[in-house]
Amino acid sequence: MKKGIFITLEGIDACGKSTQIELLKKTYPEFVYVREPGGTILGEKIRNLILKDKDITMCGKAELMLFMASRVELYEKVIKPHLEKGDIVIADRYYDSTLAYQGSARGVMEMDDILSLNRQMLEGLKPDLTIYLKISPKLAQCRRDADEADKMEMEGLSFQEKVAQGYDYIASKEPERFLVLDAREPIDVVHKNIAKAILKLQCRQKDNLEKLNAGNSENN
Ligand code: TYD
Predict the structure, then answer these.
(1) Closest ligand 1 atom to Cα of 12
(2) Which residue puts its alpha carbon closest to atom 11 of ligand 1?
(3) What distance in angstroms lies between residue 75's CA and the mean position of ligand 1's atoms?
(4) Residues 138-144: contacts with CB within 8 Å, 24+ apart?
(5) Alpha-carbon distance 118 to 123, whole Å?
(6) Would you tell me which of 63, 91, 100, 157 could form a disulfide with 166, CB atoms 3.0–4.6 Å apart?
(7) Nearest to residue 101, comparing CAs of 71, 80, 127?
(8) The whole model's pTM is what?
(9) Residue 133: is it exposed, middle or buried by C-beta count within 10 angstroms (0-12/13-18/19+)?
(10) How much is the pLDDT for 119?
(11) 154 C-alpha to ligand 1 centroid (Å)
Protein backbone atom coordinates (compact mmCIF):
# COMPACT_ATOMS: atom_id res chain seq x y z
CA MET A 1 0.00 0.00 0.00
CA LYS A 2 1.18 3.52 -0.82
CA LYS A 3 1.80 5.48 2.39
CA GLY A 4 4.16 8.08 0.95
CA ILE A 5 3.68 11.06 -1.34
CA PHE A 6 4.61 11.13 -5.01
CA ILE A 7 5.48 14.49 -6.58
CA THR A 8 6.65 15.04 -10.16
CA LEU A 9 8.25 18.04 -11.89
CA GLU A 10 7.59 18.64 -15.56
CA GLY A 11 8.27 21.18 -18.28
CA ILE A 12 9.93 21.72 -21.65
CA ASP A 13 13.72 21.62 -21.98
CA ALA A 14 15.53 24.42 -20.09
CA CYS A 15 12.45 25.43 -18.10
CA GLY A 16 14.52 25.65 -14.90
CA LYS A 17 13.56 22.25 -13.49
CA SER A 18 17.11 21.21 -12.58
CA THR A 19 17.69 24.42 -10.58
CA GLN A 20 14.46 23.84 -8.63
CA ILE A 21 15.37 20.20 -7.94
CA GLU A 22 18.77 21.30 -6.56
CA LEU A 23 17.01 23.77 -4.23
CA LEU A 24 14.53 21.09 -3.12
CA LYS A 25 17.43 18.76 -2.32
CA LYS A 26 18.89 21.45 -0.03
CA THR A 27 15.56 22.26 1.66
CA TYR A 28 14.37 18.65 1.99
CA PRO A 29 17.40 16.35 2.14
CA GLU A 30 15.17 13.64 3.67
CA PHE A 31 13.13 13.21 0.46
CA VAL A 32 13.95 10.64 -2.23
CA TYR A 33 14.95 12.14 -5.61
CA VAL A 34 14.79 10.32 -8.94
CA ARG A 35 15.18 11.40 -12.54
CA GLU A 36 13.97 10.13 -15.89
CA PRO A 37 15.22 8.61 -17.96
CA GLY A 38 17.64 7.04 -15.49
CA GLY A 39 17.81 6.40 -11.76
CA THR A 40 18.69 2.70 -12.11
CA ILE A 41 21.58 0.89 -13.82
CA LEU A 42 19.33 -0.05 -16.75
CA GLY A 43 17.74 3.41 -16.83
CA GLU A 44 21.10 5.21 -17.04
CA LYS A 45 22.14 2.97 -19.96
CA ILE A 46 18.84 3.76 -21.68
CA ARG A 47 19.41 7.47 -21.00
CA ASN A 48 22.73 7.28 -22.80
CA LEU A 49 21.19 5.42 -25.75
CA ILE A 50 18.32 7.84 -26.24
CA LEU A 51 19.90 11.18 -25.40
CA LYS A 52 23.65 10.98 -25.85
CA ASP A 53 24.77 8.30 -28.29
CA LYS A 54 24.76 10.20 -31.59
CA ASP A 55 25.54 7.00 -33.58
CA ILE A 56 22.14 5.56 -32.70
CA THR A 57 18.96 6.76 -34.34
CA MET A 58 15.60 5.16 -33.56
CA CYS A 59 12.00 5.35 -34.67
CA GLY A 60 9.53 7.21 -32.45
CA LYS A 61 7.85 4.04 -31.18
CA ALA A 62 11.19 2.49 -30.15
CA GLU A 63 12.06 5.73 -28.36
CA LEU A 64 8.73 5.67 -26.52
CA MET A 65 9.24 2.06 -25.44
CA LEU A 66 12.75 2.82 -24.15
CA PHE A 67 11.51 5.75 -22.05
CA MET A 68 8.82 3.42 -20.71
CA ALA A 69 11.30 0.62 -19.96
CA SER A 70 13.43 3.05 -17.97
CA ARG A 71 10.32 4.24 -16.07
CA VAL A 72 9.03 0.75 -15.26
CA GLU A 73 12.44 -0.28 -13.90
CA LEU A 74 12.60 2.89 -11.78
CA TYR A 75 9.06 2.33 -10.52
CA GLU A 76 9.67 -1.29 -9.48
CA LYS A 77 13.13 -0.82 -7.98
CA VAL A 78 12.93 2.63 -6.38
CA ILE A 79 9.62 4.52 -6.47
CA LYS A 80 7.26 1.77 -5.32
CA PRO A 81 9.37 0.51 -2.37
CA HIS A 82 9.92 4.07 -1.09
CA LEU A 83 6.22 4.98 -1.36
CA GLU A 84 5.31 1.79 0.50
CA LYS A 85 7.70 2.81 3.29
CA GLY A 86 5.99 6.20 3.56
CA ASP A 87 8.71 8.35 1.95
CA ILE A 88 8.20 11.46 -0.13
CA VAL A 89 9.47 10.80 -3.66
CA ILE A 90 10.25 13.67 -6.02
CA ALA A 91 10.58 12.66 -9.68
CA ASP A 92 12.26 14.83 -12.30
CA ARG A 93 9.82 13.81 -15.10
CA TYR A 94 7.35 10.93 -15.24
CA TYR A 95 4.68 9.78 -17.71
CA ASP A 96 3.50 13.33 -18.51
CA SER A 97 6.85 13.75 -20.32
CA THR A 98 6.00 10.85 -22.62
CA LEU A 99 2.55 12.33 -23.28
CA ALA A 100 4.06 15.73 -24.13
CA TYR A 101 7.20 14.64 -26.04
CA GLN A 102 6.29 11.35 -27.74
CA GLY A 103 2.53 11.99 -27.86
CA SER A 104 2.05 15.69 -28.58
CA ALA A 105 5.39 16.59 -30.21
CA ARG A 106 6.33 13.42 -32.08
CA GLY A 107 2.79 12.18 -32.66
CA VAL A 108 3.90 8.58 -32.12
CA MET A 109 0.64 7.52 -30.43
CA GLU A 110 -2.56 9.13 -29.17
CA MET A 111 -2.05 10.65 -25.72
CA ASP A 112 -4.90 8.59 -24.25
CA ASP A 113 -3.27 5.37 -25.47
CA ILE A 114 0.12 6.38 -24.02
CA LEU A 115 -1.60 7.14 -20.72
CA SER A 116 -3.39 3.83 -20.58
CA LEU A 117 -0.17 1.94 -21.47
CA ASN A 118 1.65 3.74 -18.67
CA ARG A 119 -1.10 3.12 -16.14
CA GLN A 120 -1.05 -0.61 -16.92
CA MET A 121 2.73 -0.83 -16.57
CA LEU A 122 2.91 1.31 -13.42
CA GLU A 123 0.02 -0.25 -11.50
CA GLY A 124 -1.93 2.96 -11.95
CA LEU A 125 0.50 5.12 -9.97
CA LYS A 126 -0.52 8.71 -10.60
CA PRO A 127 1.42 11.60 -9.03
CA ASP A 128 -0.24 13.25 -6.01
CA LEU A 129 1.04 16.55 -7.34
CA THR A 130 2.64 17.57 -10.62
CA ILE A 131 4.51 20.85 -10.74
CA TYR A 132 4.59 22.19 -14.28
CA LEU A 133 7.20 24.91 -14.79
CA LYS A 134 5.72 26.84 -17.66
CA ILE A 135 7.90 28.97 -19.91
CA SER A 136 7.73 30.09 -23.53
CA PRO A 137 9.84 27.84 -25.80
CA LYS A 138 11.58 30.93 -27.23
CA LEU A 139 12.72 32.12 -23.82
CA ALA A 140 13.80 28.60 -22.85
CA GLN A 141 15.86 28.40 -26.04
CA CYS A 142 17.76 31.56 -25.06
CA ARG A 143 18.59 29.99 -21.68
CA ARG A 144 20.02 26.84 -23.24
CA ASP A 145 23.68 26.20 -23.89
CA ALA A 146 23.75 25.10 -27.57
CA ASP A 147 27.11 23.33 -27.19
CA GLU A 148 25.72 20.95 -24.59
CA ALA A 149 22.45 20.11 -26.35
CA ASP A 150 21.40 16.45 -26.17
CA LYS A 151 19.55 14.71 -29.02
CA MET A 152 16.13 15.86 -27.81
CA GLU A 153 17.23 19.48 -27.39
CA MET A 154 18.58 19.47 -30.95
CA GLU A 155 15.03 18.98 -32.28
CA GLY A 156 14.55 22.77 -32.36
CA LEU A 157 11.96 25.40 -31.50
CA SER A 158 8.90 24.05 -33.31
CA PHE A 159 9.37 20.70 -31.52
CA GLN A 160 9.53 22.45 -28.11
CA GLU A 161 6.40 24.41 -29.05
CA LYS A 162 4.51 21.16 -29.62
CA VAL A 163 5.85 19.80 -26.31
CA ALA A 164 4.59 22.96 -24.56
CA GLN A 165 1.15 22.60 -26.20
CA GLY A 166 1.07 19.02 -24.93
CA TYR A 167 1.82 20.08 -21.36
CA ASP A 168 -0.77 22.89 -21.50
CA TYR A 169 -3.37 20.38 -22.66
CA ILE A 170 -2.59 17.74 -19.99
CA ALA A 171 -2.51 20.38 -17.24
CA SER A 172 -5.89 21.75 -18.33
CA LYS A 173 -7.40 18.24 -18.19
CA GLU A 174 -6.27 17.60 -14.60
CA PRO A 175 -6.24 20.96 -12.78
CA GLU A 176 -6.51 19.29 -9.36
CA ARG A 177 -3.24 17.39 -9.90
CA PHE A 178 -1.27 20.14 -11.68
CA LEU A 179 0.30 23.19 -10.12
CA VAL A 180 1.26 25.44 -13.02
CA LEU A 181 4.03 27.88 -12.08
CA ASP A 182 5.39 30.75 -14.14
CA ALA A 183 9.04 29.75 -14.66
CA ARG A 184 9.99 33.36 -15.53
CA GLU A 185 9.54 34.32 -11.88
CA PRO A 186 12.68 34.65 -9.71
CA ILE A 187 14.14 31.28 -8.68
CA ASP A 188 13.39 31.79 -4.95
CA VAL A 189 9.75 32.75 -5.65
CA VAL A 190 9.21 29.57 -7.67
CA HIS A 191 10.90 27.56 -4.90
CA LYS A 192 8.65 29.08 -2.21
CA ASN A 193 5.53 28.25 -4.23
CA ILE A 194 6.69 24.65 -4.61
CA ALA A 195 7.44 24.43 -0.86
CA LYS A 196 3.94 25.77 -0.06
CA ALA A 197 2.31 23.11 -2.25
CA ILE A 198 4.42 20.37 -0.62
CA LEU A 199 3.39 21.52 2.86
CA LYS A 200 -0.29 21.44 1.89
CA LEU A 201 0.11 17.92 0.57
CA GLN A 202 1.94 16.76 3.72
CA CYS A 203 -0.92 18.11 5.90
CA ARG A 204 -3.52 16.36 3.72
CA GLN A 205 -1.59 13.09 3.88
CA LYS A 206 -1.27 13.34 7.70
CA ASP A 207 -5.06 13.87 8.00
CA ASN A 208 -5.74 10.89 5.73
CA LEU A 209 -3.42 8.60 7.68
CA GLU A 210 -4.95 9.71 11.00
CA LYS A 211 -8.46 9.01 9.68
CA LEU A 212 -7.31 5.61 8.43
CA ASN A 213 -5.73 4.74 11.78
CA ALA A 214 -8.84 5.93 13.69
CA GLY A 215 -11.03 3.76 11.42
CA ASN A 216 -8.77 0.74 11.97
CA SER A 217 -8.85 1.06 15.77
CA GLU A 218 -12.70 1.41 15.74
CA ASN A 219 -12.90 -1.84 13.75
CA ASN A 220 -10.64 -3.71 16.21
P1 TYD B 1 17.37 15.77 -19.41
O2 TYD B 1 18.81 16.01 -19.72
O3 TYD B 1 17.05 15.05 -18.16
O4 TYD B 1 16.63 17.13 -19.57
P5 TYD B 1 15.74 17.93 -18.59
O6 TYD B 1 16.68 18.51 -17.57
O7 TYD B 1 15.08 18.92 -19.48
O8 TYD B 1 14.76 16.95 -17.97
O9 TYD B 1 16.76 15.00 -20.66
C10 TYD B 1 15.57 14.38 -20.68
C11 TYD B 1 15.03 14.55 -22.08
O12 TYD B 1 14.22 13.44 -22.43
C13 TYD B 1 14.17 15.78 -22.21
O14 TYD B 1 14.42 16.40 -23.44
C15 TYD B 1 12.77 15.21 -22.21
C16 TYD B 1 12.94 13.87 -22.83
N17 TYD B 1 11.94 12.87 -22.43
C18 TYD B 1 11.04 12.37 -23.37
O19 TYD B 1 11.08 12.76 -24.55
N20 TYD B 1 10.11 11.44 -22.99
C21 TYD B 1 10.06 10.95 -21.72
O22 TYD B 1 9.21 10.10 -21.40
C23 TYD B 1 11.00 11.46 -20.75
C24 TYD B 1 10.99 10.96 -19.34
C25 TYD B 1 11.92 12.42 -21.15
Answers:
(1) 7
(2) 152
(3) 17
(4) 139/184, 140/12, 140/13, 140/14, 140/15, 141/14, 143/14, 143/16, 144/13, 144/14
(5) 8
(6) 100
(7) 71
(8) 0.95
(9) buried
(10) 96
(11) 12
Q: Let me know if 142 is exposed, middle or buried by CB neighbors in 10 A (0-12, 13-18, 19+).
A: exposed
The pocket around ligand 1, CB under 6 angstroms, is made up of 13, 17-18, 36-37, 51, 67, 92-93, 97-98, 101-102, 150, 152
Residue of minimum CA distance from atom 14 in ligand 1: 152
Closest ligand 1 atom, residue 93 Cα? 24
Q: How many CB atoms lie within 10 A of CB 216?
A: 9
**pLDDT (tens digit per residue) in 202-214:** 998 888 888 888 8
Q: Which tens digits make up the pLDDT trace of 141-172?
A: 988 777 778 888 889 999 999 999 999 999 99
Q: What is the pLDDT of residue 4?
A: 95
Cβ pair 21, 9 in contact under 8 A: yes
27 Cα–ligand 1 center, Å = 24
CB contact set of 130 (below 8 Å; sequence gap of 6+): 7, 8, 9, 10, 94, 96, 171, 174, 177, 178, 179
